[in-house]
Write a structure and sequence with these properties.
Oligomer: single chain
CATH architecture: 2-Layer Sandwich
Number of strands: 6
GO molecular function: sarcosine oxidase activity
InterPro entries: SoxD (IPR006279), SoxD_sf (IPR038561)
CATH topology: Folate-binding fold
Shape: globular
Pfam families: SoxD
CATH superfamily: Folate-binding superfamily
Bound molecules: zinc ion
Protein name: Sarcosine oxidase, delta subunit family
Number of helices: 2
Number of domains: 1
CATH class: Alpha Beta
Length: 118
């Protein structure tokens, strides 16, 4: 079992309270009737499958029931950060070590691990 930091509840909760909902930051076309079949098919069915940094949409299904984003490393499975809808990730493929400000999630997870191993 592992823990996920819910950015709305502001605390680490058991993974069983959460459900993944797929790739994050997929914008619905502004005018679907103007899309070609290929563009609409890409929007509906095709998702990135990167090796490394990946942004995912999750929901705190058994908690506050809010959607939020997780930045996860697909090789190590490490959750690098969680952030609210509308916020920008500090970990990206261009900045794999994160932004200048360390996220609250990272600090909370480090604190938890320190407590577990103490
Ligand atoms: Zn929550």
């Amino acid at each position: 079992m592992f823990y996920i930091h819910c950015p709305y509840c502001g605390e680490l909760r058991e993974e069983e309270e959460f459900h993944p909902k797929g790739q994050a930051h997929i914008a619905r076309p502004a005018d679907p009737t103007a899309c070609t079949d290929e563009e609409w098919g890409d929007y509906l069915f095709f998702r990135d499958n990167p090796r490394g940094i990946h942004h995912e949409l999750w929901v705190h299904a058994v908690g506050c029931r809010k959607f939020f984003n997780i930045t996860r490393h697909t090789v190590s499975y490490e959750i690098l950060e969680t952030f609210k809808m509308g916020e920008q990730p500090s970990f990206t493929t261009e900045h794999p070590q994160g932004g200048s400000a360390e996220s609250a999630t990272r600090q909370a997870q480090d604190a938890l691990q320190a407590g577990v191993h103490a």
